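Subgroup meeting minutes
Present: P.N., E.W., G.H.
Scribe: E.W.

1. P.N. recapped why we're keeping a running log of single-chain structure predictions: easier to compare across weeks, and new members can see raw inputs and outputs side by side.
2. G.H. added today's entry (181 aa).
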Amino acid sequence: MRGIPAAPAAIELTDARTGHRAPLRAMTTLFDLALIAVDRDQQLPSAVQQALADIARVMTGADTTVAVLAVGADRDGAVEVADRIGTACRVFTDPDGRDAEALGLAATPGLVWVSTAPELLAVESGFDRARWSEVLRAMAQRWAWSRPVLPTNAPAVAEPLLVGARPDLTVEKEAADDRAA
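Output recorded in log:
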């Protein structure tokens, strides 16, 4: 929870299931937002995948919106990322990684907590059980909710955030544009 930048008002996220794009402030009008950022190409250890799924499962009933931010993924790829970690929560797509970068992430997987203000209350780049547990404890306390317990065998994982166009997504977008024309 160190070095938290201000929540950029200009950030807009795209819902992978509906294609609807909305500003961050519109998503935090009633509830905080807990984003779990995962790169579409990242192979996570099973204990970390389980931890991410447990966070989504346990926190979904709290006064928050739990969502996956699929970095480097188009809409279909974003849904696949959420399915891979075993969660049916809301899914946002971030094809070029710029949204994750604007939120202050430098590595994935990442955990971002945005308040209703909207202010960034926590940004954790990379999975570190101790740091994530600290954030989850603060979330649970704020919402008077159960805290997910992270597996003790979940290793620290951090892959640098890739920002910019990914060649395979550019080809897919051009093919889709050609089909639409």
